[in-house]
Amino acid sequence: MLFYNLGIYLYTFVILLASAFKPKAKLWVQGRKNWKTKYAEHLKKLTGQKKIWVHCASLGEFEQGRTLIESIKKQYTSYKIILTFFSPSGYESCKNYGCADAVFYLPYDSKANAKTFIDLVNPDKIIFIKYEFWVNYLNEIKRKNIECYLVSAVFKNHHPFFKWYGGIFVKSLHAFKKLFVQDKNSLELLKSIEVNNVEICGDTRFDRVLEIKNNFTPIPEIEKFKGDHKLIIAGSTWPQDEDLILETFNELNLPDTKLVIVPHDIEEKLIKDTISKLNKYQLSYCLFTEKINADARVLVLNTMGLLSKSYYYANQAYIGGGFNGGIHNCLEPAVFGIPVTFSGNDFVKYNEAIDLINLKTAVNVNSSDELKKAWTDFFLQERSSDKIRENLRAYFESNSNVTQRVLSQIKF
């Protein structure tokens, strides 16, 4: 435990130093300043009311848990919801989220912070989405005997719970009344370390992306840009993704196909870098936040909040992040019945990516030649697009309704 706490303090110190020149680190630090006073003042209005604390690491986990939060808000109206985030990308995007009664940064994981924060919130129930096993918080939750659940979790062999040094992490798992996991492998791994309060319930992201699809509203700007053309949407792209995508798109030179790039980070400097690459290949482009040019070949979606429903307009999608530690959400495009490509070798960490490859609705690519072949094959095989759509429809149908299965086992 000593080494764990030293690691937490070192991590916090590094972020403090980085905050001088990294905007996200600065938000991380500023968002936690005087948190005790700010949170206590905000929570005064909830004194004496039943509360559920929901924790999400970042925006992706929030999207994963969103259907759960909104179902609780709708079905169990007497409960107030306290939503916390570890990262600025989650907090800054959701700080005005209407279904939460309070949205906070989670203070860093020290024993004192955990005790103070939990005393202030005084939750009746706690839900952690997917992961983030902060040992001091979990130990305090267990000490106070607060009803706590882990939802949509995935466990892999390389996680610290299954290593020789993982004792304190295994112990922290006993804070959970039940762990709702996505797959059989996670269940068996947990049983191997004698964590038995586990149930396979699937992934609540399926419910979320189906909800987005079923409540789709048009995006006139993308409609205007696409016109009668085919469309590739590259979502959550990082610089290395864009290098690959633009090289391939330029070489293919498909006059009937357009491209939408949706950067993972829309910081001005990064958008300028994307524009420089477009100019290098002499690809005509327009920015979403400026006038849409229907004659341009590339649209840069330099705004937040539209990616998930923009896939409605795509004939196929590329998912970014694979060169930077892990691909982003490939369920978002797949729910619209379109094939998907993604790069990097870490896709094996994501059950849905493996499922989509096995369904022959996704391809992993790591070079321009591989991406060129995948895009070309999917366009040439349009006669099989009905089969792709049917496979994906059945896949989502068989994996849906996770939210209600989880809620049925939490006693309110």
Written description of the protein model:
By secondary structure, this protein is of the alpha/beta class. It has 2 domains: 49-202, 3-Layer(aba) Sandwich (Rossmann fold); 218-398, Rossmann fold, CATH 3.40.50.2000. Helices cover 45% and strands 17% of the residues. It contains 19 helices and 14 strands. It has helices spanning 2-18, 23-30, 35-43, 59-75, 88-94, 111-121, 135-144, 167-172, 184-192, 205-214, 220-226, 239-252, 268-280, 307-310, 331-334, 351-358, 368-380, 385-398, 402-407; strands at 50-56, 79-85, 102-105, 125-129, 147-153, 178-181, 198-200, 230-237, 257-263, 285-287, 298-300, 316-319, 340-342, 362-364. The strands form 2 sheets. A 7-stranded parallel beta sheet has the order 3-2-1-4-5-6-7, with helices on both faces. Helix 9 links the parallel strand 6 and strand 7. It is globular. The relative contact order is 0.09. The mean pLDDT is 94.
What is the number of beta strands?
Answer: 14
Shape: globular
Per CATH, what is the topology of the largest domain? Answer: Rossmann fold
Helix-strand category: alpha/beta
Mean pLDDT reading: 94
| pLDDT < 50 stretches | none
Radius of gyration: 22 Å
Second rung of CATH, namely the architecture of the largest domain:
3-Layer(aba) Sandwich
Percent of residues in helices comes to: 40-55%
Beta-strand percentage range? 15-25%
Distance between the termini: 34 Å
**Overall tally of domains:** 2
CATH class of the largest domain: Alpha Beta
**Superfamily (CATH H level) name of the largest domain:** Glycogen Phosphorylase B
